[in-house]
């Protein structure tokens, strides 16, 4: 009775103590779950490390490009706690290269030596810098065969849902992505080459976004003090500054081409001596006639389109799907005389923040293997290329099919294959 009387007389302190103890218990339970996940992942990695190798074989070498500034400066700690022990236990010889400033990853890729695997530890910005620096190399055809692993340590990890099964636990996502690198399952991904008139090309894995919704999304963080209303507030203020939010542009595009066949993952066995002798004799007596290869002129089709939002994307969201090679331009059919209200603009914009690639049912979709964007005179603003800002300008976008190979979890691949059947 004395205890209950004390709690009743000091109910404010008791309530505060219960809240603190509940939060502390929840925090400790979360830490315990993280330790269990790390332990299970390390046990799996240890089995890889115990596998015997032949005397003439060497340990696999991995070059890790780590951005310590990702995830608000927590990336280095996340990597050291969750990813580095798994790689070390698996017997992988890792070389960690940390970036100090924005754009350094591009320069580092110019001097990178041949490695068995390339691991990007960061977010969308780090990944885009690495693939841009890699594909700008003169010998990029050779380095394009190097498998790439992506460990999601950034605030935006757009490629992760395509490669791994995601959860609400950051530790689980990091350990699962690291284990998929050890298992060795890879998938070829398409790459967008985006080139302006003067600058060197920029390469992207997901897509290019331009328009009013993109501009509004860049200002949402300024209204942080409004809490859950910040998205709607950003759209309201944007409509007050500029309405209607319609932009005219010209797009020229090439028709889609058939997707090239998959390259064999395993090296074919060498034919026996008799077959090789017969083949050489046939080539000697009947040499193959090399006809002149005449390149067909590219047939560009042009359209003038008014739009609120433009998104050019790859099919890397489902990399195992076998579809034709294409770029999809999604264009909102909104004109200056349209009846779209401010409320509809805010509703559509709020949904697009959940998934920027979602558009209304009446959107226009163009399939192409390449396209050229011509912006109106005096147009200003920015592109979002894999969630990174670039100044808007006339650009040519080409799709490079199956240009890079990325490590992918077996579970995610089976899930995507079951969806396509």
Report on this model:
It comes from Echeneis naucrates (Live sharksucker). It is a peripheral membrane protein. Keywords: ATP-binding, Kinase, Lipid metabolism, Membrane, Mitochondrion, Mitochondrion inner membrane, Nucleotide-binding, Transferase. InterPro entries: AGK_C (IPR045579), ATP-NAD_kinase_N (IPR017438), Diacylglycerol_kinase_cat_dom (IPR001206), Lipid_Phosphate_FormReg (IPR050187), NAD/diacylglycerol_kinase_sf (IPR016064). This is Acylglycerol kinase, mitochondrial. This protein has 421 residues and is α+β, with helices and mostly antiparallel strands. It folds into 2 domains: 20-184, Rossmann fold, CATH 3.40.50.10330; 207-259 and 298-404, Tumour Suppressor Smad4 (Sandwich), CATH 2.60.200.40. Helix content is 39%, strand content 23%. It has 14 helices and 16 strands. It has helices at residues 2-9, 11-49, 70-73, 75-89, 104-110, 124-135, 140-143, 160-163, 170-183, 212-219, 230-241, 273-285, 342-354, 410-420; strands at residues 61-66, 93-98, 117-122, 148-152, 186-195, 202-204, 207-211, 247-254, 301-307, 309-313, 327-331, 364-368, 370-374, 382-385, 388-391, 395-407. The strands form 3 sheets. It has a 6-stranded antiparallel β-sheet with strand order 6-5-16-13-8-9. A 6-stranded antiparallel β-sheet has the order 12-11-10-7-14-15. It has a 4-stranded parallel β-sheet with strand order 2-1-3-4, with helices on both faces. Strand 5 and strand 6 (202-204) form a beta hairpin. Helix 10 crosses helix 11 (230-241) and helix 11 (230-241) packs across helix 13 (342-354). The chain starts with a helix and ends with a helix. The relative contact order is 0.14. The model is unreliable at 333-350 (pLDDT under 50).
